[in-house]
Amino acid sequence: MDKRAVQGRTEASVEILAINAMTGNDALLALIGILNELDTPYMVVGSYSSNFYGIPRSTKDADLVFQFDSRSLSEIVKRLPEGLSFDQQSTFEMVTTTRKEVIVIEDSDFLIELFHLSTDDFDQARFQRREKVCFGDGSTTWMPRMEDVIIQKLRWAKGGARSKDFDDVVAILGVQEEVDFSYIIDWCEKHGTLEILAKAREEAEV
Question: Which class is 23-144 in CATH?
Fold first, then answer.
């Protein structure tokens, strides 16, 4: 058999495997592209937002909040690239009991969680304040403002007793020079997270 033919098939096989092996970042960027095309109101939250403002850390999921309607969801489903699919069961986030949809990646443990925009006062406020930023490979996405990321992370740190959320707040405070603490304190008073904020500021020395 012609060695060049074997080599050609081998290279083609490697290329196919590379295409099929979608990473979490690839999947998130693909979804962001779809949401932008559909002009669906959304924002990237969770660890990707704290990585954006703070010190990046590894994560096994990506969280987004979007303004849900059945038509936009069906359009998202239609446009998902091969290898991405919606879990058939909607679930709820434990801290705020917000309904969410989950997108799974074939042959990967990475998950994308799409949270429905809730009627919670803070959820509504941070969604209205979100801003468009450059993200990933030069594409744009909608992101909460830095102070809103801190407020929500403190909320999760309290409600879910999750140390990583507290650590994310410390990381953001440690690298950001201009922080609107009066805005943060106002919401922390409502959420009962002032003590956690004080501890985070102490650790970040701000």
Answer: alpha beta
